[in-house]
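Is this the right way to post structure tokens for a design question? Let me know if I should format differently. Anyway, here goes:
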């Protein structure tokens, strides 16, 4: 890791050493202010993006009259030397290094001499930081997209191998209708697929190049911004220099994206926490994703899921905090914008681990089909009684009422709905015939729902196929 070395002397700047912007200042920064102002402690993670941006910038400058080709080569070689220092952990941060941009430029100039002082011509840290952050985030988004796809595939694989398993589906956390476990799995796969699609949109809006916008007004030396974008593999350039330097929508969108995705994972975690209790015993979390109690030897806790659920809160916190920072800012760059870094970096790290852990939990999860089936009860087929009557020509509202009376009758007889006799049913309505007794079959009940999207087996296979095709083509 990079270390902070002793001050190189105060000179024209702060106690920590000379500043790149020190010319108009007589007094150094207050030491507390120096610390308050510095972002190097965290923005150093963008070292590679910063070097990439500077190499592209040196090449673009050489296309103007600002630097010669020989100077460009010297700058590029120097920047590669700086890259090497970072990559082997030998880069020495000095106290005057306010942020990653000043640190890299300071080191470059130490290595290549005065030509290093030409690199920043027409550039500002305002367009530089916007560029670096986009480059950095772009890479992370690609990585997260891959993990997300793997997780969607894990849900789909579990659905494939558990197609016959049934359990109670809940509304209001009350037993509602029998569903297939695969239907539950594919529900989360659907959420995550939307998250994947949304993330590609965030990527598209992140992958735009603001470099060459200068401090706010644009570039005075006719720099080729399209060339810069091409060198850095951006899809295009920002349209307006004020927007280019002050826009952080891509940060806001990513923070929203991670809060929404973590909200989905948190709901999944909550389901699994409930389903893994002794009371439910629908699923068993793998040992690799559970922990014990230091006091109660019998305990096996769903800590992985609790942490997924708990940590999701932090992501929404980052989004909220950041939007509060942003909402009152006048155009264009204000130092407040530096406050995007810590929430952004932490959100990337947090959502990455939430996805990885969720993927592991799903891949290793075991289901207990007998327990799931045992939790089904015949009153969950009350809707089927109504549908039976509908098939005999009774309007649904009336059928619903009649079915409710059957439920009431079973309750008054202190028995289950499927224990009512044909005579009992016929007392409630003359529409009932002997085939009413055939509806009490959970498997048959679920097979009614074969319209696309339902919990019927044909619909489930169709959903699995859709995911499979999508996984192949994305
Ligand atoms: N460290 C700053 C940031 O992250 C860089 C931009 C500083 N620009 C300025 N004009 N002070 O936003």
């Amino acid at each position: 890791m990079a270390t902070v070395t002793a001050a190189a002397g105060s000179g024209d700047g702060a106690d920590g050493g000379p500043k790149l912007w020190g010319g108009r200042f007589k007094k150094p920064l207050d030491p507390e202010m120096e610390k308050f102002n510095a972002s190097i402690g965290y923005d150093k993670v963008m070292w590679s993006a910063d070097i990439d941006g500077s190499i592209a910038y040196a090449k673009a400058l050489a296309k103007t009259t600002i630097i010669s080709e020989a100077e460009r080569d010297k700058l590029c070689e120097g920047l590669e030397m700086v890259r090497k220092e970072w990559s082997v952990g030998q880069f020495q941060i000095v106290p005057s290094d306010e942020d990653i941009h000043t640190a890299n430029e300071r080191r470059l100039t130490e290595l290549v001499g005065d030509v290093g002082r030409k690199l920043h011509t027409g550039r500002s840290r305002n367009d530089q930081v916007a560029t670096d952050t986009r480059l950095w985030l772009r890479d992370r988004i690609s990585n997260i997209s891959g993990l997300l796809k793997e997780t969607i595939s894990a849900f789909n694989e579990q659905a494939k191998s558990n197609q016959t398993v049934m359990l109670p589906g809940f509304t209001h956390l009350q037993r509602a209708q029998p569903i297939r476990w695969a239907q539950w799995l594919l529900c989360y796969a659907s959420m995550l697929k939307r998250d994947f699609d949304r993330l590609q949109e965030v990527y598209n809006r992140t992958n735009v190049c603001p470099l060459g916008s200068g401090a706010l007004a644009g570039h005075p030396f006719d720099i080729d911004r399209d060339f810069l974008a091409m060198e850095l593999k951006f899809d295009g350039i920002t349209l307006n220099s004020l927007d280019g330097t002050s826009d952080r929508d891509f940060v806001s969108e990513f923070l929203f994206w991670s809060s929404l995705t973590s909200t989905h994972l948190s709901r999944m975690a909550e389901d699994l926490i409930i389903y893994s209790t002794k009371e439910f015993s629908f699923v068993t979390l793998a040992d690799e994703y559970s922990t014990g109690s230091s006091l109660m030897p019998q305990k096996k806790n769903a800590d992985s899921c609790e942490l997924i659920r708990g940590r999701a809160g932090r992501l929404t916190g980052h989004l909220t905090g950041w939007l509060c920072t942003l909402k009152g800012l006048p155009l264009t760059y204000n130092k407040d914008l530096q406050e995007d870094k810590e929430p952004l970096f932490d959100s990337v790290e947090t959502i990455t681990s939430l996805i990885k852990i969720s993927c592991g939990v799903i891949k290793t999860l075991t289901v207990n089909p007998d327990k799931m089936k045992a939790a089904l009860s015949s009153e969950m087929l009350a809707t089927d009684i109504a549908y039976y009557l509908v098939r005999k020509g009774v309007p649904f509202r009336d059928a619903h009422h009649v079915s409710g009376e059957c439920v009431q009758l079973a309750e008054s007889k202190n028995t289950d709905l499927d224990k009512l006799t044909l005579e009992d049913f016929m007392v409630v309505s003359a529409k009932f015939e002997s085939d009413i007794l055939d509806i009490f079959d959970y498997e048959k009940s679920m097979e009614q729902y074969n319209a696309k999207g339902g919990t019927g087996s044909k619909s489930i296979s169709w959903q699995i196929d859709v995911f499979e095709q999508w996984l192949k083509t994305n």
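Format looks fine. Someone answered above. Worth noting: The chain has three domains: 38-121, 126-374, 378-466. Residues 126-374 form a domain with the Fumarase C; Chain A, domain 2 fold (CATH 1.20.200.10).
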